[in-house]
Amino acid sequence: MTSNDMDYLTIALPKGKLFQPSADILAKIGYTAEGLSEKSRKLVITNEEKKIKFIITKTADLPTYVEYGAADIGIIGKDILLEEGKDVYELLDLKYGFCRLMVAVPQALLQEKLSDYAHMRVATKFPHVAERFFNSKGIQMEFIKLNGSIELGPMVGLAEIIVDIVETGRTLKENNLIEIAQITNATARFIANRVSFKMKFDRINQMVEDLRVIVESGEGK
Amino acid sequence: MSKNEFVLQIPYGTRDFLPHEAACKREIEASIADVFVKWGYDEVVTPTIEYLDTLTIGNGREVEPHMFKFFDKNNRTLALRHEMTTPIARVAASRLNEVELPLKLSYITNVYRYEQAQTGRQCEFYQAGVELMGVPNANADAEVIALSIELLRQAGLENFQICLGQVEFINGVMDQVNLSPKQQQQIKQAMVTRDLVGLGEMLDNTELTNNAKDILKRIPLLHGKEDMLKQAYNMVYNEQSKRALDNLTEIYNLLKGYGFEKYVNFDLGVIRDFNYYTGMVFEAYTPGLGFPLCGGGRYDNMLSDFGTACPATGFALGIERIMLALERQGLAVVSTKKDIYVAWQEGKVLDAIVQAKKLRDEGNSVELALWAQTEKTAEEYQVSKGYHKLVYIG
Q1: Is B300 exposed, middle or buried (0-12, 13-18, 19+ CB in 10 A)?
Q2: What percent of chain B has pLDDT over 90?
Q3: Is B243 on the interface with A (CB under 8 A)?
Q4: Which residues constitute the domain of residue B30?
Q5: What kind and span of H or E run contains A212?
Q6: Helix intervals (H) in chain B
């Protein structure tokens, strides 16, 4: 139990595209550790002098580490927060890692309006977000959870449409998929465990203030 | 597929307490029960099952999806209790006319919530708590907070913190800045779900003055000791918020009388639930446990749902969470008492029974052998079972 120790602050960082910008922005406010790298073989990287521990987790697992207090704080995309629905403090929008959660469909299946897609199969990494979105429109769908390569779903007849993260839209175009609706925007968020935020309030709140200055100056991007 | 595939399974979200854990649980519950008695709270036991309509009377739709439900013979919907405050309010409402106030009731029992099992909270979990009914003042609020602190101390926890808030502070601020009911609802929702980014975005899209936006954005971050409270006084000019701060000051001063102020921080971001609480709210935290140990507050409107208006305040704490915190902090001290093993030679069983009875009467924990043993076998058994002493009747 790493957050057990009141002296240390345990920070969870996600593998993948958010790792480097997150490590960089934390370094700017003095939170870093020797050997902090996505490729690190160590599971817990400690900075004894500054009393910081870093853990690097799979993206989708990060909110769970923070919810349970295994990490005090973390940085993760809003898309993952929406999907996982964990009970954590969402303290600051760090503005980088911008992407959109989109509904897309192959050119050949394009319909006039959204409700025309009712009862089709949706391939997605984000079944909860997708279901909430369609429910809010009163449209029932069948959801198929995939862990990657979502675009493949419609190509091989596993699903008719997809809900996926889009950064530039290039992957969709290359696979002849057309965006038909936007569910939400997402950027990286600074999150905290609900107990840690209270027990280590001064330290975490100071981090939020320091990060806010960097984000607002535009340096974080 | 084997016919007996499910024989060893138990339903999702339930657990067994094996001897060591059961002993820990019993010890903590005994210490809690003892404190309740010392503080003048009477225990009540209510049915595990109630009518769904009773349990959902005040907070309605929100809790219903998390309840275990079934039907009685007349097809009325029953539910397992999801907390104890509502059943106690029901009991109190039916008795209030007959008893002298205040009514001070306590419970230690299991409750049920159908949700994803999490640390220290299965679908079936154990709670201890009190409800203090009939007193609207800060003395009652301070007493229940002090009582919760005393319980945590007596359970053996050393390092914990109480965060004390007041929902009327936020309500006052929202009225002060003239928000529509819909906007208020959205802001409350963002605060309850701890989404401070969403709160900020929502406020930026309103017509509020920058000053008003700033106050609302800062509420979840108002955390500290008495100087924070001074800061909060300077932020608001409406009576409702000021009264809320006065109330917190009064409670804090009373807690000084108990010598407990060191455990308490003010935190105006602690809200718990807007639909339920009407005054002070508090939660207790300890390092290494990502969830609150304990939570409570003042709920003056709930009893009127049962037809008798009556102010009330109270809290509930999670027994398993205390067990977990003690274990993680290396404070779990459970010694299953094993004093004496009484063994006997063939033909001496009656003497052994007499001896065992005598030793038990003297206050020892005694296991009596159930068949004849040689002294050597008896000694081996005594050591392996952890008894301090062997009495051999030969």
Answers
A1: middle
A2: 70
A3: no
A4: 10-157+309-320+327-336
A5: helix A201-217
A6: 19-38, 52-55, 85-95, 138-155, 167-176, 181-192, 196-204, 210-218, 226-235, 239-258, 319-328, 349-361, 375-385
Alpha-carbon distance of B82 to B64, in angstroms, equals: 9
Phi, psi (deg, nearest 5) at residue A178:
-110, 130
Express each pLDDT in B41-100 by its tens digit: 999 999 999 999 999 887 667 788 889 999 999 999 999 999 999 999 999 988 877 888
Q: Are A9 and A93 contained in the same domain?
A: yes
**Is any Cβ of chain A less than 8 angstroms from the Cβ of B66?**
no
A205 to chain B: which residues are within 8 Å by CB? 221, 223
Residues 6 or more apart in contact with residue A27 via CB below 8 angstroms:
none
State pLDDT tens for residues B263-285.
999 999 998 877 789 999 999 99
Stated as kind and residue range, the H or E segment containing A11 is: strand A9-14
**What range does the domain containing A153 cover?**
99-185
The pairing of beta strand A99-106 with beta strand A161-166: antiparallel
Cβ proximity of B131 and B100 under 8 Å: no
**Does any CB of chain A come closer than 8 Å to the CB of residue B195?**
yes
Is residue A104 domain-shared with residue A211, that is, in the same domain? no
Per-residue pLDDT of B23-32, as tens digits, reads 889 999 999 9
> Are the C-beta atoms of residues B340 and B347 closer than 8 Å to each other?
no
pLDDT at B69: 95
In chain A, count H helices and then E strands: 8, 11
Distance (Å, whole) CA B221 – CA B211: 16
Place of tokens 């038990």: B360
Q: Do B15 and B149 lie in a common domain?
A: yes
CA of A206, closest CA in chain B: separation in Å?
11
The vertex-B211 CA angle with B206 and B214, nearest 5°, equals 75
Q: Chain A within 8 Å of B267 (Cβ-Cβ)? A: yes
Half-sphere exposure of residue B294, counting CA atoms within 13 Å on the CB side? 32
CATH number of the domain enclosing B315: 3.30.930.10
Q: Which residues in chain B have their CB less than 8 angstroms from residue A97's CB?
A: none
Q: Rounded to an integer, what distance in angstroms lies between the CA atom of residue B276 and that of residue B302?
A: 7
Cβ within 8 Å, pair B290-A90: no
Q: How close is the nearest chain B Cα to the Cα of A104, in Å?
A: 26
ipTM given for this complex: 0.86
CA distance B196 to chain A (A): 5
One domain for residues A68 and A126: no
* Å between B331 CA and nearest CA of chain A: 13
Indicate which CATH number applies to the domain containing A25: 3.40.190.10
Range with the lowest mean pLDDT among B10-14, B177-181, B267-271?
B177-181
Q: Does B274 touch chain A (CB under 8 A)?
A: no
Query: What is the greatest pairwise CA distance in chain B?
Result: 94
Residue B311 makes CB contacts below 8 A (sequence gap 6+) with: B133, B134, B135, B136, B140, B298, B300
Cis peptide before B102 (omega within 30 of 0): yes
Residue partners of A20: CB distance under 8 A and separation at least 6? A38
CA distance A219 to B109: 54
